[in-house]
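Bug: token stream looks shifted between consecutive jobs. Job 1:
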Amino acid sequence: MINEESKVRIEKLEKLKSQGISVYPERFTTNYELFDASQLKDGTSEVRIAGRIMSIRNFKKLIFITISNIQGSLQLLLKKDEVGDLAFEHFKEVFDTGDFIGVEGRMYTTKTNEKTLRIESYVFLGKALRSLPEKWHGISNVELRYRQRYLDLMMTKDTQNRLLNRSKMVRSIRRYFEDQEFLEVETPVLQHTSSGALAKPFRTSCKS
């Protein structure tokens, strides 16, 4: 069942389509990962990055946005007098937390010593039709975390780190055996019995 918030998000999606905007564009070229961008010197320009919007803080003439991916996060700054009234209001009208955005701009450090990218232009990369769990508390329901692993992966840093560490470990093991000229074989390919989509249904019976 679609809740009220999802209905609003769908309406925003349809509005974008009516404006001729590609709501799920195939490509956006970046030149930095989020973590790498956060290490750049102040004044570095033409920085192109992309990510999922995790939080939006609206003020009268500026908006602070935090975007994230599995390997890092970065704060963005959208200023009305830098991008223009049209782009500023457009962001406020169509973007929500959970959406994907691609941006280009230059780096600077805020008064609170946080690396931030000042947006010069942005591109809509995808609409999330459901809201994310509340940011500060994350997903505290263990059963929900196991049932909806995609939410757990998006919101729980420990889960993200475990996935990254497992990937690195498997890659290292595979690289070691490849260097020793071992041949990797996917054993299910060698099975003679039908399984998965090839399996045939069967019936059980009980004799009294």
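Job 2, same session, no restart:
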Amino acid sequence: MTNIIAWIILGLLAGAIAKAIIPGRQGGGIFGTIILGIIGAFVGGSLVTLLTTGSLQLTAAGLSIPGVIVAVLGAIIAVWIWSLLTRRTV
């Protein structure tokens, strides 16, 4: 149960920071921010594992300063991909 709460907190932090860094309106509200942040934690954790060990594994960043940085970087990638997928032409 503690891990789920930590993932939600990490997701909220990483998603909010990533949405603040990426320009434009992403939408999604608080739940979208949390989901993109959690996805970002997995993307960032998996990329760091790939770079450090050479093997691709689905891992999440932890609730620490380096973990938050990795999760934010992963969330930036997730927000960028989400904005590409949901781009609307006006």
